[in-house]
Amino acid sequence: MAAGFSVTFLGTGTSVGVPVIGCGCGVCLSDDPRNKRLRSSILVETPEVTLLVDSGPDLRAQALREGFTRLDAVFYTHAHLDHVTGFDELRAFCWRREDPLPLHATASCLDALKRMFGWAFSAENTQKGYVKPGSRMLDGPVRYGDLEITPFEVEHGGIETVGYLFRHDGGSSFAYAPDLKRMPETSIALLRGVGVVALDALRNAPHPTHLTTDEALELISEIRPGQAWLTHLGHENDHACLAASLPPGIGVAHDGLRIMV
User: Fold this and answer.
1) What's the pLDDT tens digit per position in 135-186?
2) How confident is the model at residue 1 (pLDDT cuts 50, 70, 90)?
3) Is the dihedral of CA 55, 186, 243, 68 positive or negative?
4) Which CATH architecture has domain 6-253?
């Protein structure tokens, strides 16, 4: 662990999760636990720091399942509801700290958080027991302990969205972009040769704001990582079938998967 860090996939599902309410498809009725997908989020850990990417609506269940009780900061990819509406669950991580919990996000995402959860950002929010957010607008790389975190631009419909590149001082690296349709060349160049990448791969059929499986594989071939994982998966994807169809070095992430980088 001294030369790297761990990444836990807290959730690997799309905005409605899997199973989908009211759906009787084979994946939604599957007994394979890898086909049970909470909304997408990851936890990045070193012996010194614990970082969360996105606080989706399943954060409470994810934290209880994985048993983590500490956060040093939260990094947001964008302000869609499936990535932010577990915001109030952050109160449990504010009880154990005196200073505000740093929230790193784009200006537009911070504005959306302040509109949705105005009480938390209010100067009158002084009573113990509530979320105490510390706004940190993204303007370049950020350091936490032996990790450097660099945001990078992606295109995801009409909402400003970023992914994150985590670099450890020991040389290992991991990039995460759970929601995107296109990646600018500047971002591809930044990620090229990264140790591990995890990308959106919603389904096989085209979607206006998410990568298809084939589009994700094409992007992975441009980035040329050491290893790749597919995430933000819809109920069109059976885990075992999708995994069997992929080239070597590319896997299907599932809830609770923990990898060492």
Assistant:
1) 999 999 999 999 999 999 999 999 999 999 999 999 999 999 999 999 999 9
2) very low
3) negative
4) 4-Layer Sandwich (3.60)
